[in-house]
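Page 42, continued from yesterday. The earlier attempt failed because a stray header line got pasted into the input along with the sequence. Redoing it now with the clean sequence only.
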Amino acid sequence: MTGNAITWLNGDLIPAADARIDPADRGLLLADGLFETLLARHGMIINLDRHITRLTEGAAILGIPLPLSATGLRAAASETLAANGLHDADRASLRITLTRGPAGRGLALPATPQPTLIITATQAPPAPQGLSVMTSSVRKVRTSPASALKTLNYTDHVIARREADTAGADEALMLTEQGGIACATIGNVFVMSGKRLLTPPDDGAIRAGITRADVLTLAPDHGLTVDEAPLSIEALRSADDIFLTNSLWGICPVTELDGTRRQTTDATKKLAQALDDAWASLIC
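This time it went through. Structure tokens are written below.
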């Protein structure tokens, strides 16, 4: 974010440099909160209602009251885009962050939570044309109740990304407890084998992304058989193609895995174009 950035904080649009949260905020101290990252194109926030639904459902599970209705969240997100001069931008990134707010020391929940809600917006760079990816040693714990939620606790992901940085890779793939592939640090994983599209199941070890769901919906229309099943490292390496998905990139091909160069198939290119077209249709 630039020095001129404007942040939406608890109902007010203020310069980001002046934004302050309480030092006792549980989001800061305990990662007690949730977030959503969204793509906006020419003022249209892609899949906004689905992101709001996921945030609302996660907040209900954690028992964090949302200070705005869905209508209020939609309006606040658009106001933040406009305040940052991004309402007509080709690509802008928004982040909605919700915490339980300030509380006393320790883990005891506040009797009357005063949640903190923050919305930021910035110019989004073009999606990468390809990514070098390494297999991380980090394992996702399927039985953790937080695994499937988009919480502020990204420690596992940060450690995996640090491993990628050390290895000179763009991204890292995290493993399941059984040693299979779970997800990337900021996206879901797909492999293409012939006309079969395989992705790890939504069994608690992954955060099943909104873009992942879009791809699963589009794939059958392009002659692909979808299979949500455990993905071994061997299956990953022998696949025709690998790609990652998230809400900012859409579909991004993996062009290098653990130091081995890989090609991108026509099937993946066509699916990526179909997803881009589907998102573009929302702008009209």
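Notes: Helices lie at 26-30, 48-62, 70-83, 155-167, 210-218, 233-238, 266-283.
Reminder to self: strip header lines before submitting.
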